[in-house]
Every structure is written in C-alpha cells, then in structure tokens.
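Justification of resources, computational component.

The compute hours requested in this renewal are based largely on the per-chain cost of generating structure records like the one below. Each record pairs the submitted sequence with a full structure-token output. That output is archived, and it is also reused by downstream analysis tasks.
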Amino acid sequence: MKKIKYIRKAAQPHMVGDGFKVRTFISSAMWKDMSPFLMLDYIEPVNYLPTEHPRGVDVHPHKGFETVSILWEGALAHEDSSGGKGKLFAGDVQWMTAGAGILHKEFHEEEFSRKGGVLHGAQLWVNLPAKDKSTAPAYQDIRSATIPEIKLEDEKGKIRIIAGEMNGVKGPANTFTRINIFDAHATADASFDLHVVDGDHTTLLVLKGTIHINDHQTAREGEMLVFEDAGSSIHIQTNNETHLLLLSGEPITEPVAAYGPFVMNTQQEIMQAIDDYNAGKFGVLN
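The structure output for this chain reads:
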C-alpha cells in the first residue's frame, strides 16, 4: 500500500480571466513530489448568469509542457494556433501539447453562455522531458464516450481511465511519459483499490465526500493527498457520495525553469522562448 506523505489544502480561490474560479493545489515547492505534474487548478462549480459575451481567457502562449482540461459540468470552446479547435461538454477532456510553442484561447461555449449554468472542471499542467519540449504542438479531443470505465462492485460507482492503465483497461490519451489520470465516482459504502506503478509520484484529490485510506486515515472534501513513492495500490472506503481524481506518473528528474506560461530546463531556454513568442514563432490566432 502507498502511504500518505502529507495532505494539502488548496490556496484561496481566484479568477482566471473572467470565466474560471479556481483553487490551485500544486505550488513550485511541491514539484519534487509531483513531477510530471506542475499545476492543478480545480475549477470550482459556479453558476454563471446568461450572457451574450462568453467569459473565459483570451489568446495567450504556452511552451514546453501540456495542458489537460477535464470538464464535469458546463461547456467550453477551445481554439489554438496549431489548428486545434473544439467544444468540450460534461465528461470530455482536452489534451493540448504546447511543445515548441502555441497560442490558444478558451471561453465558455456560446450556447452555454447564452443560457447560463454551472461550470465545473479542472486543468492540469504536465511537464515534458527535455527531449520533447520542442515537439510540434498538438491537440487531443477526448470525448466522454471514448473514455473507458471500470465498474465498482455492487454497482457502487465507476473509475474513468483518462490516461494510463489499470486492471488491463487503457485510457485514450497519448502521453510522452507514463501518466495515470483516474476519475473515480462512488456511492456511500463503496470499497475499492486504485492501482499505480510502484515508484511513481502519486496524488489523490478529494473533490467530494469523505473517505478512509488504507483502513486507517481519513481524507475530506477539498484535500489533496500526496503519497510516498513506494507501493502500488491505495485502498479506498467511502462514507458518502464521493468524487476523486487520481494523478500518478513517472518522475521527470530534470531541472525545471518556469516563467509564466513557459516551462523549460534553463533560464537561457526561458529567454529564448520569450524571444520566439515575441518574434511570432508560435503561430497566429485571432
């Protein structure tokens, strides 16, 4: 069994653009425990009023990593300078590889904006190893229907395998390093195991409910559990309706240099990324 190393609560909520109320769970001080995950912004459920002008974040750059957007409620619209374009609805996932440099924007989907409603999701930043930081930008549009599920015993819930593999079930996301993203939903009194690779960095976010971990520790809604590297399974028992997000991955043991939307290995590479962006090398997006 993996043992809990520490439990973290998110920072106070803040707005990203005018359309995303988020709580940030991962700080740069945690990267040594969290690699390849650099950021986890939990998009709190907010009921937005109708508007003719979609809320969101306008054109901005990224380089050297990937963004993963998971949507549980609401609808979003994405467009980027690589030609990636799509709409996300409840259950969908968007996986964008910034790589050598990309421009993108993300807004509430137009019809959702006109009607109003609840938006609820999460966004991750996933680091790329040095050899892949200049890979061509790409976009994976992962629909809910393509995400396989592992059913819990006695019809007490399901585990969606977005990336990686568990119990022989493989997720649809293509990744540069070994990554697991499991989206678990369970009723009260469910009992199940989450399996990961021994030695991988692993964290578990409790989005809803109260759970017992490995039969002796309690974790509550709004907490993120960071585990020791040793061990390959986590036993979960639920007290009530529960929603969990598990992240695990092979650590990238390389230096990290980060500045705003750029994640490289050295400060010199950061300066080059800024120069490339200013020179228009990330493409064009209106």
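The helical segments are 31-34, 110-115, 267-278. The radius of gyration is 19 Å.
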